[in-house]
Amino acid sequence: MNQLSYKTVSANKATVNKEWLLVDAEGETLGRLSSKVAKLLRGKHKPNFTPHVDCGDNVVVINASKIQLSGNKWNDKVYLRHTGYPGGQRSTTALEMNAKHPARIVEKSIKGMLPKNRLGAELFRNLKVYAGAEHKQEAQQPKTINLNDIK
User: Fold this and answer.
1) Segment 94-141, tens digit of pLDDT
2) Is 33 within 8 Å of 71 (Cβ atoms)?
């Protein structure tokens, strides 16, 4: 009897083909942008996706200060942090966060959609977010990608 002709191929660090992708966040809704970028970082758009391996691409997001939030989220969405001291809980609205650190809104949203383990931390290092149109990754020659083409 013949052996199976189809074999499951598992990707590893040596066989993974990583690319640099450029995403323009201007006019995009935060959650929709974040879920698509998280999919690109994770590598779920590739046919050789392996859940326990970093097989995603490096993603550069520009114009993070020009994202959209639906409804009244600019005033109602609250980001919490803690100083580590008793009574040290601090809160910031999305509007205040956008004024001070516009890239941090996109970073926090994407990080929340990645796995909560060492792999997720490794994947998050493949993300670069910039508030303006300029970025420092020209040497990598990132390929511009349209998010509407990704399901």
Assistant:
1) 999 999 999 999 999 999 999 999 999 999 999 999 999 999 999 999
2) no
